[in-house]
Design goal:
The chain is mainly β. Helix content is 6%, strand content 45%. The N and C termini lie far apart (40 Å).
């Protein structure tokens, strides 16, 4: 049964995290130059998603049963990849948020593919000014695969 979980998250350091509750991934080692260009650092059991502002941002996590139809139109940035959720407990939080207080929801334990989509880039005029940027993560059961940039919002370095 598809579901959508919506959050307003303080994207301190221009990022937020979606991870298995027991993840031990080290974001210090997975934020590579490629990860910075893709705006996403992917570990085995966690994803650190880059944002374009260092303020509260709107986040939507869509849990699906199957891969979504092509969703790239209307989005400014897109990356696909995979991670695992062995406990079935998914934590969604800002990177400086207190872990015990972070938002959580349950999904079936297992391997998931994801599609990270960013929209509303053109509405950002200044970091602290209101904007309609939205950070969407679609996840569905699927086998492990390398991350791949599908649509960059800007030229890569």
């Amino acid at each position: 049964m598809p579901s959508v979980h919506r959050f307003s998250i303080f994207a301190d350091y221009f990022q937020f995290i979606v991870q298995d509750e027991n993840s031990e991934d080290d974001f210090g080692s997975i934020w590579t130059k490629e990860a910075l260009n893709h705006m996403i650092a992917v570990g085995e059991t966690a994803i650190c998603l880059g944002t374009l502002r260092n303020v509260d941002v709107s986040v939507a996590v869509h849990v699906l049963g199957v891969e979504p139809a092509a969703l790239l139109e209307g989005y400014d940035h897109a990356v696909e990849g995979a991670f695992t959720v062995p406990t079935g407990k998914l934590v969604v939080m800002g990177c400086t948020e207190y872990f015990p207080d972070a938002s959580r929801f349950e999904i079936a334990p297992g391997s998931y593919r994801f599609l990270y989509l960013v929209s509303g880039v053109h509405t950002i005029t200044a970091e602290c000014e209101p904007a309609d940027d939205l950070y969407c993560l679609y996840i569905w059961p699927g086998e492990a695969r390398s991350s791949r940039l599908l649509k960059p919002w800007k030229g890569t370095n």
